[in-house]
Write a structure and sequence with these properties.
By secondary structure, the protein is mainly α. A two-stranded antiparallel ribbon has the order 1-2. A two-stranded parallel sheet has the order 3-4. Helix 3 packs antiparallel against helix 5 and helix 5 packs parallel to helix 9. The protein is globular, with a radius of gyration of 23 Å.
Length: 280
């Protein structure tokens, strides 16, 4: 029985163990040196597919979808803070540096927190119902004793009544995906020992801004044009693509790109056009 060909990325060509011409002649970018299976990427995709199920099976409107992804932005910020705190954990000097530079985290939390609050106001103000908006304003100004505001207990009752239980499931799945990535890649795989602290500040802000703005603008068009709710599915697909791209770039090793669903060996010193198949 012939052995199935295993495509191997070398330089700018895809080669195959049996020199399949359909694979060997495919041109790919020079930057793609090797590809390997990434279960965390598949977990990320699976977690992001839940909102699509919510739209199709639970009749989710625009608001639950955007609320779920807005809550995910809070999780991304929390994971970024953990990454800053656990950067270079084996270095005593770095712990001293982080202790004295602890205000450095504020340079991340202040703009990121402002971004999350502004986008949250947009999500609740434009897409939420009147009761949800009233409850959100009451929570935001909980310290103010102005008349007309709900108590925190009353606001929570409104949220429980108005929001689908699937939101809790969705945020739990997304949180598990981000936590798995943090523990497996950052702590176990040692990314914490080669991280760029400046990138930890910039990347989450850029990622969340791009993701939420694209979703909000698209959802705004869907709602204002009274378009079918299934048009939310392409918007969720855009969000998945942005998340996956950020995930692959974050965990990319030198000369390697992680792509879900493919199991290919790294370049093990192969020379010329003499590829060797390697079992995954």
């Amino acid at each position: 029985m012939p052995t199935p060909s295993v495509p191997i990325i070398r330089g700018h060509k895809i080669l195959a163990a049996n020199r399949n011409p359909m694979l060997a002649n495919i041109t790919i970018p020079q930057s793609l040196r090797s590809v390997r299976f990434a279960p965390s990427a598949l977990l990320l995709i699976a977690a992001n597919l839940l909102p699509i199920y919510g739209v199709l099976a639970w009749n989710w409107s625009v608001f639950p979808v955007l609320l779920l992804f807005w809550l995910e932005a809070i999780i991304v910020g929390a994971m970024s803070v953990l990454k800053m705190l656990f950067a270079y954990p084996a270095s005593f000097i770095m712990w001293i540096v982080k202790l004295f530079c602890f205000p450095f985290i504020g340079f991340f939390l202040i703009p990121y927190g402002m971004l999350v609050v502004i986008l949250g106001m947009f999500v609740f103000g434009v897409f939420g119902s009147d009761s949800v908006r009233h409850a959100a304003v009451s929570v935001l100004f909980a310290a103010n004793s102005a008349s007309g505001l709900l108590t925190l207990e009353e606001a929570m009752q409104v949220f429980r009544r108005e929001l689908d239980a699937g939101i809790v499931l969705g945020i739990a799945v997304l949180a598990a995906s981000h936590l798995f990535s943090f523990v497996w890649y950052y702590l176990v795989k040692g990314e914490c020992n080669r991280v760029n602290l400046g990138a930890l500040v910039v990347q989450p802000v850029a990622r969340v801004w791009l993701m939420l703005m694209a979703l909000n603008l698209g959802a705004f068009g869907v709602q204002r044009l009274d378009a079918p709710l299934w048009l939310l599915i392409p918007l969720i697909g855009v969000k998945i693509a942005i998340d996956l791209y950020a995930h692959l770039r974050e965990h990319q090793k030198p000369n390697e790109l992680i792509v879900p669903g493919m199991s290919l060996p790294p370049n093990n010193g192969l020379q010329g056009d003499s590829p060797q198949a390697t079992r995954a």
